[in-house]
Design a protein that fits this description.
160 residues, alpha+beta, eight-stranded mixed sheet
């Protein structure tokens, strides 16, 4: 097999710092978020800050990104790119400072003169650790529950 090394470039590898422009990659990053602190800047002015939960990350050119009532619905088509920044830098791409008990990487969602800076809150890491469950154990739990339900249904039918 003859491979021409100049025709196939390797896929990008971005670790903690860099710019992500591919919508699929952006979506994967956002789907991994849960509880975040956000800073919204427009024209170098902070217009909103707060904390919330990422309820949904999606890709649809006809829908909006929405942030309200501590809930974030993030559409990758609302942004040109995501800049990943290590928290050791201490600030978002828009110049705002990160602060508080946060994880290592901040995500700056950028579109023209607008930036929605999302910093995951560290306590979510502890939640992931407690939510991990062995797939076989989960399957056994579901099987036991279904089996018990079926047994109860059969018993009910016999009593009729």
């Amino acid at each position: 097999m003859n491979h021409n090394s100049s025709s196939h470039l390797p896929a990008p590898c971005i670790v903690d710092n860099g710019i992500v422009v591919n919508k699929t990659d952006m979506l994967r990053l956002l789907k991994g978020l849960s509880h975040v602190r956000y800073i919204h800047r427009q024209d170098d002015e902070i217009t909103s800050t707060g904390e919330g939960r990422v309820m949904e990350a999606f890709a649809d050119p006809n829908q909006a990104t929405l942030v309200a009532n501590h809930s974030l619905y993030l559409n990758v088509y609302s942004f040109d790119y995501i800049e990943m920044l290590s928290s050791t830098k201490g600030q978002c791409a828009d110049g705002s400072r990160t602060q508080g008990p946060y994880t290592d990487t901040t995500f700056a969602l950028v579109q023209d003169n607008r930036c929605l800076c999302l910093t995951p809150i560290a306590k979510d890491i502890d939640q992931y650790a407690t939510r991990d469950i062995d797939a076989a154990a989960l399957e056994a739990i579901v099987t036991d529950a279904l089996s018990a339900s079926w047994d109860a249904s059969i018993d009910d039918e016999r009593n009729l």
